[in-house]
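Posting for a labmate who doesn't have an account.
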Amino acid sequence: MQNALRLAALDRAARRAGLAPGLTLADARARVPDLAVLDHDPAADAAFLEEVADDCDRWTPLVALDMPDGVPDGLMLDITGCAHLFGGEAALRARLLAHLQRHGLGALAVIAGTPDAARALARSGKGGVVPPGGEASAVAGLPVARLGVGAEIVTGLSRAGLKTIGDLAARPGTPLAARFGMELLTRLARTLGREDVRLVPRRPLPECIAERRFAEPIARTSDIEATLALLVDDLALMLEARGEGGRAFEAGFFRTDGAVRRLRIETARPLRDGAALARLWRERIEALADPLDPGFGFDLVRLGVLRAEPLTPAQVSLDGRAVEEEEVAALIDRLSVRLGRERVLRFLQRDTHDPDRASVLVPAGGAPAPSATPPDVLARPLTLFDPPQPVEALAEVPDGPPLRFRWRRVVHEVARAEGPERLAPEWWRQPAAAPTRDYYRVENREGRRFWLFRAGLYGREAAGPAGQPRWFLHGLFP
């Protein structure tokens, strides 16, 4: 019986026939011979629920997956402050259910003061709107299993004669906590509406939002761009009132068939200029490899600021550098939108003495990370070899600077040498066997300058085949 095929989910017709989840397939077919079955695909179910959750963003940005057993099988929407936009809680619930029904989805919705109360009522097949403060009476007749506690606790409560949530609520909490743990009291308080818990939304909440809803869906590109321009102006006013500028923006396009398409742009500096933002969005749409398919049209377009930073009015300097910086930042924004954020890069200096990690390429439009400027910016060359190239060097003493070296079959006579600059490996990043490096800045008789290092200390660290430390050319000075 442990390996028997069992029913995982049922439609309404199967439930009316008396079938239930967990029933073996053999027993189910004995009751309904012409039963149609499909293999259970939890991954596909979870992906479909994610799509439904995306569509539910049209009602509130606070949408979370309901995962009481670690498997998503429902949605939680925090409609605090949103219900009045749809005519009240009852009207919002009716519109939500009608919207899902138009797409062939049957759902049961409960509006309550806490997520636990709504979950308990919905899983008991009871829909509707619970009036404020009425959670305790609404859930009193539900079985204690609806609290979401373990099977052992439910069995223990049943043996003690506590079969409903109302029975449990009438008992003092101290003996219950001593026998079943504090988790039971916490679940009970949340289900009765005495303690609230905030939802963890699937997506980060925007700093501010502007949206347009349409009684007649829009599908033309010109209408979409005009809508975005209006939303940009709305956001610009919000950001100006807050003294901020946006660094990351996201546009959401909600189709009438429930599909949602999202586009995102990031800027190199805080921005709230409506004309500049509208131009960036226009280029973002034009550069899409997968065109923005409106289907039967978009009935909701939303624009949000995902990240904002303080923005003070720029003061134009006498040398015009401020204007140049603005123009460069605008160019970076346009290139990032058209080519992709990961294709427009800049060098960022790292706080490290290791020349192999001294700089890193990061998106040019990203937030600048803190960096440290070395005390002598001319001490190291701009051109580095990765990896360093081996050379044959001859020194007057084993731990002294080179007198001559051979690189690419050419012998260079050293006229001047400066060093050494001793760099130990970063032991927290590199293996302990990495040798110490002694760097020298050398100049040959033709005036060409090189940056060489000796890998390993003479007589103390790993040496080359001949028992001597090896030499490498790491960079060239201009």
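Reply:
Got it, the structure tokens are right above this. The mean pLDDT is 86.
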